[in-house]
Amino acid sequence: xxxxxxxxxxxxxxxxxxxxxxxxxxGREIYVAAKQGEPDPESNEALRVVxxxxxxxxxxxxIIDRAIEKAKGNxxxxxxxxxxxxxxxSGSMVIVDTLTNNVNRTASEVRAAFGKNGGNMGVSGSxxxxxxxxxxxxxxxxxEDEVLELxxxxxxxxxxxxxxxxxxxxxxxxxxxxxxxxxxxxxGITEFTVAELxxxxxxxLTLAPDDQEHFENMIDALEDLEDVQQVYHNxxxxx
Length: 239
Description:
Belongs to the TACO1 family. YeeN subfamily. This protein is of the alpha+beta class. The protein contains 8 helices and 8 strands, in the order H-H-H-H-E-E-H-E-E-H-E-E-H-E-H-E. A 4-stranded antiparallel β-sheet has the order 3-1-2-8. It has a 4-stranded antiparallel β-sheet with strand order 5-6-4-7, with helices on both faces. Helix 2 packs parallel to helix 4. The protein is globular and about 50 Å long. 36% of the residues are buried.
């Protein structure tokens, strides 16, 4: 899964370089999670997971607090979760997850971002079957054996574990994100290079230079959309 890890690192680096945008996206996601359940992470697992993920992007406390307070108040603002699937150059595959208060606007904007960059929208299920929903952690300062032993002792099911560039990468079941997070905390691991729920491609695709340029433009256009929360794809961008 080394090349998959490269894609995850590239995505994390891209988000870190666009802090105001990623803070806004997390603010919206935190609000939705808090609004759908109790606005308390101790009793709302979905909210707890979002907050644990937000920490790896250094989302400021005032943004988190503002989103939770908004959910506690009388705000009638509501968002729909939608997933769009599509194709880029040379059959590349893309998944776009959105939170929107205007589904028609979002669908039109996503379709335009695909179409203007050599891609096209697909039907539901046309792409997602080639991806696996997975929890991913990147850890430094521990060995692969130490991390694996810990997770086995705490009954966290590990899909895969590997080392790359001094980072231990752990892939677990998505419903065990919090359990794995707590297991790491029990041995003093509180900082992660990545702690994320993601759609991992089953196979990587390498594009020719011209196609890759069009593809990267398409991904940038999609990620720039206000209603887009996550964009997943199967293209190796590490070259």
